[in-house]
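Appendix B. One record, verbatim.
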Amino acid sequence: MLIVQLSTGFQISQALSVVVDTGVATCLEQEGPTTVGDLAERTGTRPDRLARLLRTLVPVGVLTLDEAGRFGVTEAGALLSETHPASQARLVRMWTQINYLPFSGLGHSVRTDTPCGERYLGAPFWEWLHRHPDRAQLFSQAMADITRGLRAGMFEEYRLPPGRVVADLGGADGSLLVELLT
């Protein structure tokens, strides 16, 4: 069963992406358990298709489905909401919009000297990102979202050593540096 779950993981990541992009997770996180008909109406999706998609996320612990046929979000599923304070919606977007298709060439990459992202994107990743400011912004925001959870309380007992220069290299939006200086 483990191999089945692992080999179909791409389906779950795509389902997560749809739940983020359609706003389903935000609706559920803000309004509580709701019928698929109401969700479909609010998100511009087809109820039959949406129900099938949402049911795939129940057994993996992202959504719940009660006896009345209402879907809700779990604690983990709430993180897919755009409005959740610890939202990981941009992270899901980054993985599925930037990395998903390039990783389909992973087999080629392990047989050659060409990274799968470079082969798919037509340029080294950082160069490609530089050419696509919208994707660079999404990448930076997603990285900041990841570190937000990691940095909570990180510097509580830390004291800066003597000196005059502090640098945050590769820190996305500088929020880690702000946390340190605070």
